[in-house]
Amino acid sequence: MAHSGAWDTVVEQTRRRYGALDVLVNNTAVHHRFGTLETGDEHWLETMSVNVNAVFFLSRAAAIAMKARGGGSIVNIASQLGLYAHAGKVSYCTSKAAVVQMTRAMALDVAPHGIRVNAVCAGITRTEMVEQGIRERGETVDAGLRRLGARTPGRVAVPDDIAGAALFLASGAASYITGACLSVDGGNAASGPSAGTLDG
User: What is the pTM of this model?
Assistant: First the structure.
């Protein structure tokens, strides 16, 4: 969805189908597992296009519609790797850190219009992307999840754990929360960056 006007089209189709746009959840990512010296131009540009540009352009289009309606809520799915770094993941870490800062800056910009913008900094979650990373390491999914789970104070998350946090931030229960980056990581952040790694 890179062509001009695509974002406006998505918002308009949503408004036509549902009557209004009150909530946007940006949940998109590509994850190239390369360090600085191995990251090709195409890896970097794709990561920024999907993980950063798409989030901004769709959020901007949604915020315009929400302003006209009198308010709304935007929730960005970021990552614990947007809060601290991990070797071998330079493009992913950079992109998710950009989402964290975008969330904060955008929240300040649109607060006067009744729009809240927050982020979920997700920890290790059993997704297709994580399972793919496990296989790329030559492990079975079960073995990889056990390895990752052993380094998580809580447990490996399931998608519903992240969805629940996003639902809370989008809801009226979070009406006084904006510009926040909620760590949903089973306690990894409390253990420090060395323990909290998303290296599926």
Answer: 0.90
